[in-house]
Amino acid sequence: MQSDGKGVLKDSCIFFHTPSNIARSVFFHMVCAGEYFCNNEYRVERETYHSYLIMYVVKGSGFVIFNDRTFQVHTDDVVFLDCHKPHGYYTDKGWETLWLHFDGNSSKEFFDLVYGHSGVVIPMKESPVVRRYISMILDDLKHNRVLNEVLISCHIQRMLAEILLLSAGIGDYGMEGVSPVIDAVTYIHSNYRTKINIGDLAAYVKVSPFHFSRIFKKETGYSPYEYIIKTRIDHAKTLLRQTRLSIKQIAYEVGFESESNFVNIFRQKVCLTPNDFRNTPL
């Protein structure tokens, strides 16, 4: 979908998404996303827009206004804004941006942490993560592919983790060295129904199991095993809400070896049985 806002040039695009009830209640969820090519007439000023914004500046420069402060933005910077509050951004020379409005889950907590470290502008020259993931989301939208809301949530969480790490000065790999965790997370989301062990994941991304476990925990906040379980539980929640499959069928569908094991782990992680979760109104 093309955009014709003032200062927005030809070849720009914008896409909107209405999240499901399960996405609103459980996941990070996309509100809209786009790729903008703008001249010096482009300016946004809002009292509120009910979402958070991640904007990657591919080329050009500009300014962001938030909390009565003005921040300068350059190529390879990321803007992270709480758009529930008054804010603005503009370019005086033109820019190209990839951007995503989102909400849900722990968005506010992530924003508060990042803002406390570095304000609303985070240099990203040393990391391809945000550009890569917004581009992946836009590629699905441009080709009219069905959006997997669980995977979108994972992408958003990965971007937020990278923004938080770099805002705190923790990032430790360069543009040519994309973290193996990205590939491992993608592998987990493609293969969560099957048996996955740490050795297999480490071999898949070509690092030692010890090093893999260390960097995975650092970048995601989960051990590899915890992330596999989280992924299975997230998919189970979707099936519980959106299908009438039995608990046993769902257990095997998301990769558990038995119904009892699924029920016990689900109760530990969610503090509800699968049946209670299915029957609890949103």
Radius of gyration: 20 Å
The tally of beta strands, per DSSP, is: 10
Structural category is: alpha+beta
Query: Would you list the SSEs in sequence order as H and E?
Result: EHEEEEEEEEHEHHHHHHHHH
Level-2 CATH architecture of the largest domain: Sandwich
Q: Which regions have little confidence, pLDDT < 50, spanning 5+ residues?
A: 172-177
Specify the CATH class of the largest domain: Mainly Beta
Largest sheet: 6 strands, antiparallel
> How many structurally independent domains?
2
- Residues in helices, as a percent range: 40-55%
Question: Can you characterise this structure?
Answer:
With about 280 residues, the chain is of the alpha+beta class. About 45% of the residues lie in helices and about 20% in strands. A 6-stranded antiparallel beta sheet has the order 1-2-9-4-7-10. Strands 3-8-5-6 form a 4-stranded antiparallel beta sheet, with no helix packed on it. The longest helix is centred in the middle third of the chain and has 19 residues, at about 150-165. The two termini are about 30 Å apart.
